[in-house]
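SAMPLE LOG
Freezer: B-3
Tube label: C17
Construct: single chain, 285 aa
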Amino acid sequence: MALKNVIGIDHAVVVVKELDAAAETWKRLGFTLSPRGTHSAKMGSGNYTIMLDPDYIELLGVLAETDHNAPTRAFLAKRGEGIERIAFTAIDSAAGAEEIRARGFEPIGPTDFERPVTMPDGSLSAAKFRVFQWPVTEAPGGLRIFACQHKTRETVWIPELMRHANAAARLRQALIVTPEPAQDAAHLTRMIDREGQREPDGAVTVTSGGDRAGFVFLTRDQLAGRYPGVSLDGLAERGGIGLVIASHDLAATEKALGPAGTRSGANIVVPPASATGTLLAFVAS
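STRUCTURE (predicted):
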């Protein structure tokens, strides 16, 4: 039975080495970014968000070393920049934590935190969250997962931040490269009580809930087969490596991406080396 208090993908967390430099990279790709946010001293991190509908992308950087961000620092040291984790939307984080506990996974949290937000009119507000995590050691395909309950959606999904020159609309898929797609996909299905399905090329997809983006587990060769002509230089052997993004207007996408984008079949693709370790594949919405 699927989790009742945890629904589909909420956002993807892309960990970067230099937060402001990464923001400039994503701006050059035609994304509108939120003002920089700063988390609590305990978290020791800061972020920029790229708001889509109903999901988003978070660029996360370590600002000060703390116990809380030790796993993120270890990720950067071992893997480098890229997708470290994926968040699900939590309807109720406390109830969701108990649901995964009943399935044998000891939750971390729930934990409440917030960050200041400058609203479009210049006023100062706050984005408030309650999150819980699956155990850090439970990382299918090297990808950590957690759930995020938004207590102030109006300070996160701000209309002015949801319009992008590259016509990005929403996430369609999160791509995880692994030598063992079936094994890692099965791991995730156990964690979230969702179904997996083998694709014709041998990749395995896992639904995340509702109409939200799904997960695709695939080998490096299968990834190359899906995106011919796209450089995979510097790609990790295992872990979250890409996002498929629906576009309102692929012509606008191609124009905004300029030389950073490569036509690959029906996709316009930004290679990982041009997007802080994250392959971006734009498709028609």
